[in-house]
Amino acid sequence: MAALATHDAPRTAACPSGKSEDLFTTTCTPELVPNQGGSNATSPFTTIPGNPDLPSIDGIPCVGHNSGQCIGLAEEQQAQTPLVQPHTSVSSSP
């Protein structure tokens, strides 16, 4: 007579929105998708009329040897957004 060894299935962590379970540590970690905004998020990328699956910036396709140009242009466009000035106040009491 032989006894079969059974193992419990690994417990799955119920991670909140924006986090996913790390397969090795089984802990919830932030998803690594930066700047994933809602419907009001803007992207510097556009598409080329002949190939809508190919992203581009200012008509420069973002593939192969043009990747460096594309990344630089995307960073420039993001840097041109207006900076939000924080509201500050100074007060004192007598």
Structural description of this entry:
This protein is of the alpha+beta class and 94 residues long. The chain has a domain at 19-78. 14% of the residues lie in helices and 19% in strands. It contains one helix and five strands, in the order βββββα. It has a three-stranded antiparallel sheet with strand order 3-4-5. A two-stranded antiparallel ribbon has the order 1-2. It is flat. The termini are far apart. The relative contact order is 0.09.
Q: Could you give a short account of the major beta sheet?
A: 3 strands, antiparallel
Which regions are unreliable across 5 or more consecutive residues at pLDDT < 50?
none
- As a whole number of angstroms, the C-alpha radius of gyration is 24 Å
What are the secondary-structure elements, in order, as H or E? EEEEEH
Instruction: Name the overall outline.
Output: flat
Placed side by side, the strands forming the largest sheet appear as: 3-4-5
Content-based structural category = alpha+beta
* Strand residue percentage: 15-25%
Mean pLDDT: 72
What percent of residues adopt helix (DSSP H or I)?
Answer: 10-25%
How far the N terminus sits from the C terminus, by CA atoms, comes to 89 Å
| Helical run tally | 1
Total E-strand runs: 5
Outline the secondary-structure elements.
Blueprint: E1 19-21, E2 28-30, E3 46-48, E4 51-57, E5 60-61, H1 67-79
Antiparallel strand pairs: 1-2, 3-4, 4-5
What are the main properties of this structure?
single chain; 94 residues; alpha+beta; three-stranded antiparallel beta sheet; two-stranded antiparallel ribbon; 14% helix; Intersectin-EH binding protein Ibp1
